[in-house]
Amino acid sequence: MSPNIKALVGRELTDGKVSRRYYSEDFIAELKSRADIVSLISEYVRLRRTGKNYVGLCPFHQEKTPSFSVDPDKQLFYCFGCGQGGNIFTFLMKIENLTFQDAVEELARRTGLPLPKAALDPEAARRSARAAGIRKALEFARDRYREMLYSAHGAKALKYLQGRGLSREIIDLFQLGYAPAGWDFVTQGALKAGIDIRYLELSGLSVRSRRGTYYDRFRNRIMFPIWDTRGELIGFAGRALGDETPKYLNSPDTPVFHKSRELYALHLAKPSIRSKGRVCVMEGYMDVISMFQNGIDYVVAGMGTAFSVEQARALLLLSDDVVLAYDQDEAGKKAVRRCIDVFREAGGRSRVVTFEGAKDPDEFVQRYGGDKFEELIENASPDIRFIFEEAARSTDISTVEGKLQVKDIMIPVLAALDSEFEISVYTTELSRKLDVRKESLERDVELYRRRARAGTRGYKNPKNSNTTGYDNRSRSSGKNHSVQGSIALGRQRAEEGIIRALVEKPELIRMASAYLDESDFAGNMCRFVYTNLASSPKLPEDHEVSSWIAEICAKFGPVDRPERVLMDCIRRLKEVRLRELREEMKLVQEAQDEQRLMAILNEYQELLRQAKSTRGDDYDSFPDDFPGREEG
Question: Which of 194, 230, 434, 632 lies 20 to 30 Å from 589 when distance is taken between CA atoms?
Answer without folding.
Answer: 632
